[in-house]
Automatic annotation (TrEMBL):
SUPFAM superfamilies: Fe-S cluster assembly (FSCA) domain-like (SSF117916)
InterPro entries for this protein: FSCA_dom_sf, NIF_FeS_clus_asmbl_NifU_C
Organism field: Halobaculum saliterrae
Location of the NIF system FeS cluster assembly NifU C-terminal domain: 17-73
Biased composition annotated in UniProt, kind: Polar residues: 97-106
Protein name: NIF system FeS cluster assembly NifU C-terminal domain-containing protein
GO molecular function: iron ion binding; iron-sulfur cluster binding
Matching Pfam families: NifU (PF01106)
GO BP annotation list: iron-sulfur cluster assembly
Region Disordered: start-end pairs: 77-106
Length: 106
């Protein structure tokens, strides 16, 4: 995992505890400091949650504000609710499944 990915993971734990508190999960799928791109995937109860789009927008805005090298953030929000069985400490991680049917979701 890259230094940027590790820093974004740490940031997610500190800044977005609401995700875990509500049974959701998040995974940093990509963090490229040279390109300025971060891809975060939400899972668990984020699937179908009425505020998942708001959470995604907050993550996008805040990551760009808090990390000078980040210019573009994509947050994938699952539509299916399917989540892989492997998780890491704090209920984060795992192989998340998501749909690309909605144009609002990556």
């Amino acid at each position: 995992m890259s230094d940027l990915a590790e820093r974004v993971e740490t940031w997610m734990v500190g800044q977005m505890p609401i995700i875990q508190m509500h049974g959701g999960t998040s995974v940093v799928r990509e963090a490229d400091a040279e390109e300025g791109v971060v891809v975060v995937e939400l899972g668990g109860t984020c699937s179908g949650c009425g505020i998942s789009d708001l959470t995604a927008q907050n993550i996008k805005r805040d990551l760009i504000m808090d990390f000078d090298e980040v210019d573009e953030v994509h947050v994938k929000v699952p539509d299916t609710g399917e989540m892989g069985s492997s998780t890491v400490e704090g209920g984060r991680g795992g192989d998340l499944q998501y749909s690309t049917e909605s144009s609002d979701h990556f």
